[in-house]
Amino acid sequence: MEDLLELAEYGCEIAKKEGAEFVDAVAHRGRNISVGIERNFIKHGNVSTYSGMSIRAFVKGGMGFASISGLKKEEILNLAKKASVLAKNAQPDPDFVALPSPPESYPVVEGLFDEGIQGIDAGKLVEYLRRIIEEARSVNRDVVVNGGTGLHYSETAIVNSAGIHAGMRSSVIHISASATIRMGDEVGTFFDFDNARRLSDFNPAGIGVNATRMAMKFLGARHIRGGIMPVIFGPLSGLNIFRTLCYNANAEDIQRNRSYLLGKKGEQIASEVVTIVDDPLIPGGMNSSPYDGEGFPHTKLTVVERGVLKTWLHNSYTANKGKEKNTGHSTRGGISPTNVIVVPGRKTERELISEIKDGIYVAMGDISPNRITGDISATIDWGFKIENGEIAYPVKNVMIGMHMLDFLKNIDAISSDYREEPGAIMPAVRVQNVKIAGGA
Amino acid sequence: MKDILEAIRDRAKEKGLDFMDIRFVEKDSTSIQLQDGKADRVFYGRSAGIGIRVILNGAWGFATTDRITLENARECLALAVSMAEASRERGSTVNVTRVSPVIDTVKAKSGIDPRLVSFEEKMERVVMLESEARKVSPDKISNTILGYGDSWCREIVCNSFGTLVESESVRTHISITVVAKDGTLRQSASEHEAIQGGFELIRNLSPQDFSIKAAKRAIALLSAKRAPSGVFPCILHPDIVGLFVHEALGHNAEADSVMAGVSILEGKIGQKIASELITIVDDPTVEGLWGSYKYDSEGVPGKRKVLVENGVLKEYMHSLETACKFKSEPNGSARAQDFNCRPIVRMSNTSILGGNHSYEELIKSIEHGILLSKGLGGYVDPTKGQFTFRAGEGWFIRKGEIAEQIRDVSMSGILLETLKDIDGVSTEYVPDTLKGGMCGKGGQMMYVGAGGPYVRVKKLIIGGQE
What we know:
The complex is a heterodimer of chains A (440) and B (466).
Chain A: H1 2-17, E1 22-38, E2 41-59, E3 62-69, H2 73-89, H3 115-118, H4 122-139, E4 144-160, E5 165-183, E6 186-196, H5 207-217, E7 227-233, H6 235-248, H7 251-255, E8 276-278, E9 301-305, E10 308-309, H8 316-322, E11 340-342, H9 349-354, E12 358-364, E13 375-380, E14 382-387, E15 390-395, E16 398-403, H10 404-409, E17 411-421, E18 424-437
Parallel strand pairs in A: 7-12
Antiparallel strand pairs in A: 1-2, 1-4, 2-3, 4-5, 5-6, 7-18, 8-9, 8-11, 9-10, 12-14, 13-16, 14-15, 16-18, 17-18
Chain B: H1 2-14, E1 19-35, E2 38-56, E3 59-65, H2 70-86, E4 103-106, H3 119-135, E5 141-159, E6 164-182, E7 185-195, H4 200-203, H5 211-221, E8 229-236, H6 238-250, H7 255-259, E9 280-282, E10 305-309, E11 312-313, H8 320-325, E12 334-335, E13 344-345, E14 349-352, H9 359-364, E15 368-381, E16 386-398, E17 401-406, E18 409-414, H10 415-420, E19 422-430, E20 437-441, E21 444-463
Parallel strand pairs in B: 4-6, 8-15, 14-21
Antiparallel strand pairs in B: 1-2, 1-5, 2-3, 5-6, 6-7, 8-21, 9-10, 9-14, 10-11, 12-13, 15-16, 16-17, 16-18, 18-21, 19-21, 20-21
């Protein structure tokens, strides 16, 4: 880590000497190892060793960004010069004020790096996959399994001209499997996954079984008639609604006058059952870290409280421009939420389904509103019809058309039970009066 | 560099590997971002490295490094071998089709090499183009974003069959998104231009055909109606047909998806899968198109492929591995995003060929339907063949005439149903409407083009709000 910090510092110094008023430099290196399955067989093993540096230089607010692969000192020298020249060539931006200054201290976030993951070899990854294939075939001998598993570990150092000087080690292990079942012309598919920052949180058992059982349930999908009906978004799709909302609450889009959330801060944008917290400090969370992409310390942030939009997500640029507090959501090129947590409700998912006479259950997928207009127009790729309080049969070619603000206000329940992944709790979400288009 | 690649190949041969290839890729790119009149963000990127693939005991091993010395390349080869050893599997044997070696060097054909154009000229042109958009209606336009980019790439492929191919390419692209507002209503429109070529794209680009056009479209959308919900006969503009043929048919015809058992077109070669009005080609040999290339990332010459002919599925797109599996001729469709990515089967420029009706005839034939235009992206689940794509704008068609405009909306269909529901294809044909298309697959992005004629479909599901 020390050498990465030194190289980043060197890059910063050169860029400053070349005339940059503000500079930050990020140096990184790491390794990815992965193994893939194709049609129930282990197919390929990959290993990738990488390193690189990127430098942002600012002159009168204009930004030059330069990046390279590799960490040769003579190339870093040229890179730093290049970033400064680009910054001088860029047009000035009076809204740029400064890069973040060093904090008194950074929060301590446990569980971001596990040497146990670094110690896993390709042979162990192959074992995980073999188990998944066996599991899947124990449910259905004809299942086709594709997918893979992998790990990566890395070190990253950030240094800026205001005095930030920080480094972090990170590890991730992940596995995913898709199951396909065919019966004549009918096809059922589903997917499951597990991922973790530390080995103790990694539990791939059951993925093959879940994916295969669910794939079988999607055989015999039917076209349905459209209408206005309640929709339940299950654990693999409900959280996406709130992640998307947090992405849409980025201050850059607001300041640039291109968001359906303009003017909505402090207003009731969702029903009272919705409270959303962005928490980058969860131990072992997939999106946890002590600081953001610019080295600004992370804190926990309530984004929506009982349906009221409380804040925008900021980086240093938008916070200075808007004269608001930096929330620490910089990706060093944009703004992004971290671990999005939604507060669970009082009824179980089972109870929420049982209260629906005629509706839809979404097992996996996203509603993806247009971030400028807020219009939702999305296909339900893995959906079931709910009839008389029970999941009845799979559906195909069903679409949702609605405005995001109407959609959020129509959320009438969030389940009390949920799936849990590192840095995420994933409950079911029920939305009333959703406009559905069907092909029957 | 070639001496390092050849030395590693010779070393691999000594190890008795079934197959190996080594690729060196280096890239240089520059981009400028303008927002609301300020070109205040400028980017430069450079990357270089090698990737080595081996087949040993019927399994693939792949290793990459960005440290380009003979010693590191040797270490990389050893890692690739160890990964193949770890991935060895009883009952499954990977193999590739043996091809005649190719030795060639392909230089980039760019009119004006963007690396030789002064930064000042680049800035001046893009600032002018963006400012023209805002002039259209300073009161109504609330945000503009213009992105300019040029890139240069050199890829050298060396394999154990004796192939040694060096390919160089230059690409230039520009895009603009304009957001217009009226009270609290906001609408946006984008325009893109892209070529495999140089700065001549920008020098020849008039604001009327680009930024002013985007601004006028965004303002027009403020008066457009919300899209309807339900099932409608549709005319698809070539903009959408490009997306449709790429997402819905193209991905299913990639032989690696077929091999993995996740394509709806598995086992359908020689069968009628579409209306006989439909012929679909994938062609990387058209000079200057965004998705074109002479050699793929396995050093195999790219070929024009007729995927569907008069409704009959004729051919899949192949890598050396899938060609071996399906006992087909390799057709040069394996492409890798970078040195650290495995070559996988990809499309190049995919299009439905033109037909016999005029655009006017197609519109006149519809009593009550929708014309959809301006593709904004899409995706397909190849296993089920269910696709979704988004149109940036559309119009009602009433009694054979274009009527009210509608806002952006997505549509959905099932591939094998929709292909048979096509009952009209226009003579008007545009080879690439994606203009700067980037296709994502297996974690890799790739340059692709797609286009076609106007197409009439008996029914599609429209996911609107009315």
